[in-house]
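Annex B.
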Amino acid sequence: LYSYEAIETGTGNTQYSGQVTLGTAPSFTLTDTARGGHKTYDLAGGTNGTGTLFTNSTDVWGNGSASNRETAAADAHYGAAVTWDFYKNELGRNGIRGDGVAAYSRVHYGNAYVNAFWSDQCFCMTYGDGAGNLKPLTSLDVAGHEMTHGLTASTAGLRYSRESGGLNEATSDILGTSVEFFAANSSDAGDYLIGEKIDIRGNGTPLRYMDKPSRDGNSADYWDRNVGRLDVHYSSGPANHFFYLLSEGSGAKTINGVSYNSPTSDGSTVTGIGRVKAYKIWYKALSTYMTSSTDYKGARTATLQAANDLYGANSAESTAVAAAWSAINVK
Ligand code: ASN
Ligand code: ZN
Ligand code: CA
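Neutral metalloproteinase: predicted structure tokens.
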């Protein structure tokens, strides 16, 4: 008639998010019964299969340093849990597919692998250890980014090339960043930077910036007719910029100690509506109006429809959506 699964929790000492609570049922494995049964596995340098489920009878996982192989697992397991809670509490969605079933995570992929990825084939997230094995790609924003590739595949299905690919990448940056803010984790406060904790270039700079994407040297700030020719991690720039402008507005601003200065293509001033309304609009557009072939023009239409549904036609929110798109040259 019904089944009962114990909800057990242990302590994770993560590298990027401090000490956290982890789902560890049954009997001290990295299994999050409260969140669809999400499990975290050790690939131990392998590049296929599931590897080995993490087990530790002390129920204390990692020590905050990458030299302990459970540390990356604690970060990945935590990132999946916070993203799950964000989807549920903020977006009203029960897991990636809305069916209450979790994906799983794999850490220690390959040798000094400096990336992380989502796979529709395994319905799983995979993380490398980073260069020199010291900075695994398991920060909260990156976990939210990768899990959101699963969400996008389950909803709009944005094709991973040209403009739809840029929108797919931006959706992962937008919701990954939103997860970081949602967590309100004192060791990893929210920001509009992607991968800032990983120091992927070794000079302290993040992978991407949302206030002015061209700060990375490659991403586009504004839409133009050739933007779809860029790599999807650079054609995401205008949509990331749209999300920043819609949330925070144009110009200079400091948030959680990080300074931003967001320009507009036409010198207009955009007034932000706050990131909570902004991500609710983006998610409704993604899950209701966007399709596999949605381009930048289509994203403008989809988010305007979503804002009209949520806040009313002619609402301040809908007006701000139009203004933010116009400011990145999507008229
Ligand atoms: N980390 C990258 C991403 O999620 C991996 C890739 O390029 N597919 O976009
Ligand atoms: Zn991505
Ligand atoms: Ca970040």
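The mean pLDDT is 97. The helical segments are 69-91, 140-154, 162-183, 232-235, 237-248, 275-289, 296-311, 316-327. Further annotation is deferred to the next reporting cycle.
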